[in-house]
Design goal:
85% of the residues lie in helices and 0% in strands. The protein has 2 helices and no strands.
Length: 46
């Protein structure tokens, strides 16, 4: 079974959560960053 992608994604979100706590960013800005990140990853994968 391939569990690495799920684990890396999970770790990424933990990392984002830490950044959010530290920077106290605007929620809208956080969603923009996450959306941009996911979009670029999808472009790279496909």
């Amino acid at each position: 079974m391939e569990v690495t992608p799920v684990r890396t994604v999970h770790l990424q979100y933990i990392q984002y959560a830490r950044i959010v706590k530290r920077e106290m960013l605007d929620p809208a800005k956080i969603f923009l960053v996450l959306g941009a990140r996911l979009a670029t990853e999808n472009v790279i994968h496909y």
